[in-house]
TrEMBL record:
A GO biological-process term: programmed cell death
EC number: 1.18.1.3
Name the record gives this protein: Anthranilate 1,2-dioxygenase system ferredoxin--NAD(+) reductase component
Signal peptide stretch: none
Domain of life, per lineage: Bacteria
Keyword Zinc: no
Ranges of residues in domain FAD/NAD(P)-binding: 15-307
Native source organism of the sequence: Corynebacterium comes
GO MF term set: FAD binding; ferredoxin-NAD+ reductase activity; NAD(P)H oxidase H2O2-forming activity
InterPro entries from the UniProt entry: FAD-oxidoreductase/Apoptosis (IPR050446), FAD/NAD-bd_sf (IPR036188), FAD/NAD-binding_dom (IPR023753), FAD/NAD-linked_Rdtase_dimer_sf (IPR016156)
Keyword terms, alphabetized: FAD, Flavoprotein, Oxidoreductase
Gene3D superfamilies per record: 3.30.390.30, FAD/NAD(P)-binding domain
């Protein structure tokens, strides 16, 4: 892919704004800075080789839509006038000197800095083999796409968000897909039995083999790859994709002495960190959700909104981040939008339509709604926020939940 985001050849000694990270939060911050301070200089430093992309496309459209391309999900960040330094890691942050040091030894000063370093795929000890893929960025997509063809046997390890999405995508691309996970059902940590049993039927109808109770012990690389479980079960595959969750990239912030909280970088209402003129947004930021309190969220909407808010404050327009992020996914012909703590360790109140193909799920801690998931139900996210707020304040009883959002709307 020809990259429209090539950096200018010579860096300045300092910039008004430096953004560390090359994802959606970085793009939104650059756009907000440009709106608020058109003449300000902006540098984005990213350790990946592509400019900011619409990340959901990597596990959805690029596999499911024949005409989808990497160019099509490029966010066009250079339109903002920001310079992009790609394939470069920031190795040190010195808040006192207002400077960062890059992996190639350059030191760059800043007036204000945004940490938008995102998260990395969780790794385990595996053989060094190109057929074993951790899936996170565009380079991972290119590599996996080069390995996949009709009938190639792909084993996916993991039973969560990314594993469920990439399984659907690889099946659509013609691969022979199996998914191996420790729980009894795919996405069991999020969905009750009413949905996980339906998804099991759907996935298996698409030729995807679901293998529950599989605790990975090791991977052996030979002519084919062999997965071995703790119980001794062995599975052969041509390609293995490991979808084991994500780890926030906070090492730079930790080494710089920034205050940490809940595994992320602690920020105030304007996304400012404990260091002067240093902000954090997206996956790494632990912020105050107006409904749910202090939390860290690894989803697209949070990256977009927090990046925008941080950029505006950095450019001189103080902007408070008061947002309860949504997230969503499409799983073949089904889909959902959700807010909050959609975990099955909460009690779940399920409200289904008469056809039993759409539902609203309320996730309760005691009598307080901590999450809402709208299954095949659209356009109700604002109402779901109202329900959560009213429940938090004691204005809404559990017995009244069934009448709040119409399933299938």
């Amino acid at each position: 892919m020809s990259n429209p985001n090539e950096v200018k050849s010579t860096l300045k000694p300092a910039y008004d704004h430096v953004i560390v990270g090359g994802g959606v939060a970085a793009d939104k911050a650059a756009r907000a800075i440009r709106e608020e301070a058109p003449d300000a200089s902006v540098l984005i430093i990213s350790d990946v080789s592509d400019g900011p992309l619409y990340r959901p496309g990597l596990s959805k459209d690029l596999w499911l839509k024949a005409d989808a391309t990497l160019e099509g999900i490029d966010l066009g960040t250079t339109e903002t006038g920001a310079e992009l330094l790609l394939g470069t890691t920031v190795t040190a942050l010195d808040p006192e000197a207002h400077a960062v040091t890059t992996s190639d030894g350059q030191q760059v000063g800043y007036g204000r800095l945004l940490l938008a370093t995102g998260a990395a795929a969780r790794h385990i000890d595996t053989p060094d083999d190109d057929r074993i893929v951790y899936y996170r960025n565009a380079d991972d997509y290119r590599h996996l796409r080069s390995l996949v063809s009709e009938g190639i046997r792909v084993a996916i390890v993991g039973g969560g968000y990314i594993a469920s999405e990439i399984a659907a995508g690889l099946a659509a691309a013609g691969a022979d897909v199996s998914v191996h996970f420790p729980d009894s059902r795919l996405l069991e940590q999020m969905f009750p039995d009413s949905i996980t049993s339906h998804l099991a039927e759907v996935y298996e109808s698409k030729g995807i083999s679901l293998n529950s109770g599989f605790f990975l012990s090791s991977i052996h690389a030979g002519r084919r790859l062999t997965l071995e479980s703790r119980s001794g079960e062995k599975v052969e595959a041509d390609v293995v994709v490991l979808g084991l969750g994500a780890v926030p990239n906070v090492q730079l912030a930790e080494e710089a002495g920034l205050e940490m909280e809940q595994g992320g970088v602690s920020v105030d209402e304007t996304l400012a960190t404990s260091a002067p003129d240093v902000y954090a947004a997206g996956d790494i930021a632990t912020f105050s959700d107006p409904i749910l309190g202090r939390r860290r969220v690894e989803h697209m909407a949070n990256a977009e909104r927090s990046g925008d808010a941080a950029g505006r404050t950095m450019a001189g327009t103080r902007t408070e981040y008061r947002y309860t992020p949504l997230f969503w996914s499409d799983l073949f012909d089904d889909g959902y939008e959700a807010l909050g703590e959609t975990r099955t360790n909460h009690r779940i109140e399920e409200v289904w339509n008469d056809a039993h193909d759409a539902a609203v799920l309320y996730y309760l801690d005691g009598d307080v709604v901590r999450g809402v998931l709208m299954w095949n139900t659209w356009g109700a996210v604002p109402k779901a926020r109202e329900v959560m707020q009213a429940s938090k304040e004691g204005r809404l009883k559990v017995s009244e939940l069934a009448g709040q959002i119409t399933p299938g709307g």
